[in-house]
Amino acid sequence: MCGILAVLGCVDNSQATRSRIIKLSRRLRHRGPDWSGLHCYEDCYLAHERLAIIDPISGDQPLYSEDKTVVVTVNGEIYNHKALRESESLKSHKYHTGSDCEVLAHLYEEHGEEFINMLDGMFAFVLLDTKDKSYIAVRDPIGVIPLYIGWGVDGSVWFASEMKALSDDCEQFMAFPPGHIYSSKQGGLRRWYNPPWFSELVPSTPYDPLVLRDTFEKAVIKRLMTDVPFGVLLSGGLDSSLVASVAIRHLEKSDARQWGSKLHTFCIGLKGSPDLKAGKEVADYLGTRHHELHFTVQEGIDAIEEVIYHVETYDVTTIRASTPMFLMSRKIKSLGVKMVLSGEGSDEIFGGYLYFHKAPNKKELHEETCRKIKALYQYDCLRANKSTSAWGVEARVPFLDKEFLDVAMSIDPEWKMIRPDLGRIEKWVLRNAFDDEKNPYLPKHILYRQKEQFSDGVGYSWIDGLKDHANKHVSDAMLTNANFVFPDNTPLTKEAYYYRAIFEKFFPKSAARATVPGGPSVACSTAKAVEWDAAWKGNLDPSGRAALGVHVAAYEGDKAEDTRPEKLQKLAEKTAEAIV
User: Is the pTM value of this prediction over 0.90?
Assistant: First the structure.
């Protein structure tokens, strides 16, 4: 993971401007602590803070075409870079480095702005053509890699990996939309990523478990491309467990393993939390070198301000989940690991959140999954990227692979409907695809473990502790007057008010607060899905335990109040037996 900053069209191109851009780029150095680079061409500046993952020795940025007339600063990974280098149009080109991102400059030389669809990866980049001083900025399909765009009063256009690098110097700014390209030649933004599912029309492709499994395995394997130590974030839930299982199968039969005899896995939680127990069980089953990390509620609370500064949001569920991930990433980096695989995206694709139990029909379920995927860049992608990059660690997410998305989102959503009468729990299509009796990927009860949101799985007392802390710092009068203090996206709870006040301290401009979405939500639903159950309207909380009547440890008032680990284990085992 790297940090990029590009300023195009500065009126003042003096030494003072260069010094200012270096200073602003330094705000991104946590993302790329390994090296810094800056290219200046007249009134255009491309800066880069590098986290060296591929070709650590010679792959410093910015990167160039052969004659150095095309300059590019990139954050991300191009997984198909070798195939692109060997393609007919590029095989005659000469390369200066082994970086996977150098291919971008050469693709532009051959194909102009129309090469973006050829890329398979996660990326945000700015490319400058010095021959005519034109430029493009591009963000990957789903927004796995963050990017912001801003405009200065002098007419300059700014691009940065994080808001903090441009918010002080731009009059207006916003999150750069995923799947878009900004072209100085064509003027403004246009969408380059247009998959069939984006229209939200209900697909009809029959469910094929073997195709789904094969596509996901390919997505995991391509993300093992690295020249540095790596691992897997393993909470013990379905998604992270499948990532770890597929990764270790591939490593056992290939020569890709370079960092010891075992795959490293990592899990964090309060002592006795559901994730720690499940994570260890999966790690023991797979035979990984497992690192179980603990934190206390107070340690998490102490980190909140720093988390909000790095993650750049005041969204409640994002901050709840970002904090343990932020703490875990610090420990991971201390062990010398620079890249991890993670399980984000699965719940959005397959309707895995517990509120999907109340989806009235397949059309509404499919439309909700589309809405959730489109919004990932504001929530889970933002969390996974910025929580890890705060400590110079790169997170890769196989479930958001472009090909896997095409396959998974083309399945007739009737197969994704939760049907207890047919033994189908949430994400059944994924669970079933990896339910191999002869060569099991996972223990049966893990494969059919109920969905546990990361902020819940690290320990239920984590969220309860956050609420208690906010109640002590936000008075009833403060919340009553919240609509006057924060008229835009007004916080509705003391916890939300507490986060918002911290955010405003770091990012006081109206453009900054507009980058954070709002609206009612239950168990991570969109506002539209809240309409599925009238009971939810009085229980608006992003925790999975807000899914009354669904979660086995739902908030008090629901029938299922027993949250003892042994009770949860028995329920998981019963679910697995029922499926069998």
Answer: yes
